[in-house]
Amino acid sequence: MARKHSKYDSAQNDHQEDDAPTPVVACWLCGRPTGKTIVWHHPVPKSRGGRDVVPMHPICQQTLIANFTNSELQRHATDVEALLANPNVRKFVDWVAKKDPDFTAPTTKKQR
After folding, report:
1. What is the value of pTM for the model shown?
2. Looking at the record's lineage, which domain of life comes first (predicted)?
3. What pLDDT score does 22 carry?
4. Which residue of 4, 25, 54, 70 has the smallest Cβ count within 10 Å?
C-alpha cells in the first residue's frame, strides 16, 4: 500500500502547524486565561471516582488542595460557586485576578 505522505515531509508539515494560533483556555477556578503551564485538575478526586478534568493554573490548583479535603471536593464536585463561597478561596481569586497568567508563588500549607 502506498503512503499518502512521504515520511520526509513531516518536518515541513510540523512547521505549518506551529503557525496556527493556540486556543486560549480559561482557568476553571479563577476564569483568567491560562498561560504556558496548564494543570488538568480532577474536580472530583480520582480516589473518589472522578474522571473529568478541567484546565487550571498550577497556583489555583494548589489553593484548592490547601483548602479542601478530597471528601469536600467530592461533595462540591463541579460547582465552582460553592468553592468560591470559602472565604480563603474567594480572597485568593480576588488577589490573583490582576496577576499575569504565568504568575506563580508559594501557597499556604494545608490548614488541618
Report:
1. 0.72
2. Bacteria
3. 65
4. 4
